[in-house]
Amino acid sequence: MTRATRFGVATIVVGIVVLGLKYLAYRLTGSIALYSDALESIVNVATAVITVVALSVSAMPADTNHPYGHNKAEYLSAVLESTLIVFAALTILREAYLGFLNPRPLDTPALGMAISLGATLINGVWGTLLMRYGRRWHSPALVADGRHLWTDVVSSIGVVAGVALVALTGWTRLDSVIAGLVALHILWSGWQLMRDSVGGLMDEALPREIVDGVRQIIRDHGTGALQAHTLRSRRSGPRVFIEFNLVVPGTMSVGAAHAICDRLEAAIHGYIEGSSIVIHIEPEQQAVASPEVRIS
């Protein structure tokens, strides 16, 4: 089991604990906002399970049918998570609407808010850890799960604020209004997550600053070659793929051209850990008028 997968399993346990606490808070108060918050926690547990499955598949080595590995399983899980987030938001909107039509007074709001805030604190701490280590390990699934938990943190704070205002003002419909506003925030967060995940599935290029760094490495370590063009890049989970055409003098030997490629690959590997590099050698007759990198 990889370290990322272990984090995913721990997230399931955390999600179950938080779900139990939030459901208890709802049972104590009868608040529609706290009930909606508990509904979202069910999605948290479901997405944590999806993440573990995706991380397990992603960790599988490359094979004949998947020569580039299985890393995109993480992007698929992130898309599915965002879909569940949107579904949870729509469910909360429905509950908020029904609660607005049929408001009811709250029971023991102080105790319910305290329990909900305790669950929110757990989510906040764990969500921060997931995003920190997910970025460090280039795991889209862990980052997506961490963002999801922080979305839950924001919505939970809004829910508790709504319950507090209801308790102070006696306006029971405010409970449902706050729940509806929180649901809209969750809906927006789900859309952003889906957009980022689809970008990974569509092989978006690496950020401009990283690509510029690769170009500078080609300039610094490509001595002997003439130019480089058609530079392409993409990320698949923790792996980065880079390829480009390298133009060399037509009289250069295969051995000399290969030595330049080895030098460039070593430098790029040092710049981007876990990168997979493909360099296509071309004679100077294939030089382009406006290359991405001019070496000499």
From TrEMBL:
Keywords from the UniProt entry: Membrane, Transmembrane, Transmembrane helix, Transport
Membrane spanning stretches: 7-26, 38-57, 78-98, 110-129, 149-171
Membrane topology, as annotated: Multi-pass membrane protein
Cation efflux protein transmembrane domain mapped to chain residues: 11-202
GO biological process: intracellular zinc ion homeostasis
GO molecular function, one term: cadmium ion transmembrane transporter activity
Subcellular location(s) of the protein: Membrane
Key word Chaperone present: no
InterPro entries for the chain: Cation_efflux, Cation_efflux_CTD, Cation_efflux_CTD_sf, Cation_efflux_TM, Cation_efflux_TMD_sf, CDF_Transporter
Any one Gene Ontology cellular component term annotated for this protein: plasma membrane
NCBIfam families in alphabetical order: CDF
Family per similarity comment: Belongs to the cation diffusion facilitator (CDF) transporter (TC 2.A.4) family.
Name assigned to this protein: Cation diffusion facilitator family transporter
